[in-house]
Design a protein that fits this description.
The complex is a heterodimer of chains A (192) and B (145).
Chain A (H helix, E strand, L loop, with lengths): L12 H15 E3 L3 E6 L19 E6 L5 E3 L2 E3 L5 H9 L16 E5 L6 H23 L3 H7 L7 H11 L12 E3 L8
Parallel strand pairs in A: 3-6, 6-7
Antiparallel strand pairs in A: 3-4, 4-5
Helix pairs in contact in A: 2-3, 3-4, 3-5
Chain B lengths: L9 H15 E3 L12 E2 L3 E2 L6 E7 L11 E4 L2 E3 L4 H10 L10 E6 L5 H13 L4 E5 L1 E2 L6
Parallel strand pairs in B: 2-9, 4-7, 7-8
Antiparallel strand pairs in B: 4-5, 5-6
């Protein structure tokens, strides 16, 4: 007797797949491991006791108070669009303006907040400071800012990236170096 | 003339979508109990290896009866600032020895969280020398300057 060959009904296939798809859509999150990377200073006790004196003109002061108002070099600033340019000019001053930094190695961007400053505002300003440095590096290496951030993440075992990185940032210890001197001070205690 | 969209390839299309989501996403391991309105920034860096990252969630508790003050959530529980040292060293010790210096703490902090609590956590992390950190942010388009 001839038997009919059994077949899997495939009309409902699409429905099953949709169900599975919906399940994954609901239960999963797209991994977000992006953000502003930062290296904290060494532990307080390990730091040298002697006070490191930074000359006033080598320091670019940015302050945020507990109501998120911005003070740049002791002047209130409402619109932040010009801040990035100011930082770039400060870092790359190289002694031209005696009131600005002597050289990029000595230049320090000091960023002070209050305990009541919101995280959002903090991130906004840190973004601008880091952006200024990345712009400087990228320009020296002759790449775009986005490419710079990418390549500085992929240094290990990549000669080309290492070469560009050394051009952009300058070799450590040489006068050519532009270290990212961002000093994030302990927040003051007004709000919080 | 009657026109119809061909439906015979529908399962294939849907399966394709399904595989895409299966591959690009990961199952949520912890349920987050604090507000997470992640701030936006332009100068993002992407961390290469998920295994080297430990997440800290900081923000107001979602449940109102747990208070209005920002709290720190690590893994599944709220922890206090002084527990950060133990938490961070335990997380770091779980890594292979040659990877420990790459250990990164990712701050998933709410926009409205205050700088005070985050700075306290940073101070604790410095004590255990877990100094690589990342402020988790969403991307936004850079404004032309």
């Amino acid at each position: 007797m001839a038997r009919a060959t059994p077949e899997i009904p495939n009309a409902s296939m699409a429905d099953i797949a949709f169900l599975l798809l919906t399940f994954f859509l609901v239960t999963t999150t797209i991994a977000n491991d992006r953000g502003l990377s930062l290296i904290l200073p060494p532990p307080p006790e390990a730091q040298q006791e002697e006070e490191v004196k930074i000359q006033e003109h080598n320091m670019f002061k940015i302050q945020l108070n507990s109501s998120d108002a911005l003070l740049v070099e002791n002047e209130p600033m409402g619109d932040v669009s010009g801040l990035k340019k100011m930082i770039k000019e400060f870092v790359l001053n190289r002694g031209v303006d005696p009131k600005s930094s002597e050289n990029p190695v000595k230049a320090v961007v000091s960023f002070k907040t209050d305990r009541g400053t919101s995280h959002k505002r903090f991130v906004e300003i840190l973004d601008i400071i880091q952006g200024a440095y990345y712009d400087i590096y990228a320009e020296r290496a002759g790449v775009t800012n986005a490419r710079w951030r990418e390549l500085s993440n992929e240094l290990e075992g990549n000669m080309e990236n290492q070469r560009l990185y050394d051009i952009g940032r300058g070799k450590k210890g040489t006068p050519d170096e532009i270290p990212m001197n961002i000093s994030i001070a302990e927040p003051t205690k007004v709000g919080g | 003339m009657k026109q119809e969209i061909p439906t015979s390839s529908m399962p294939d299309v849907v399966f394709m979508l399904l595989f895409f989501f299966m591959v690009t996403t990961e199952l949520r391991k912890t349920s987050i109990n604090v507000m997470q309105r992640i701030p936006e920034a332009t100068q993002l860096k992407k961390l290469q290896r998920k295994s080297l990252i430990a997440d800290l969630y900081i923000g107001e508790p979602k449940k109102r009866d747990q208070g209005m003050d920002a709290k720190i959530q690590a893994d599944d529980a709220f922890i206090s600032t002084k527990d950060i040292i133990i938490w961070a060293s335990r997380k770091r010790d779980a890594l292979a020895e040659n990877e420990r210096d790459q250990f990164t703490v990712s701050f998933k902090a709410d926009s409205e969280a205050k700088r005070g609590i985050i700075a306290d956590v940073e101070t604790e992390l410095r004590k255990v020398n877990a100094r690589k950190i990342l402020y988790s942010t969403m991307g936004k388009k850079e404004e032309p300057n």
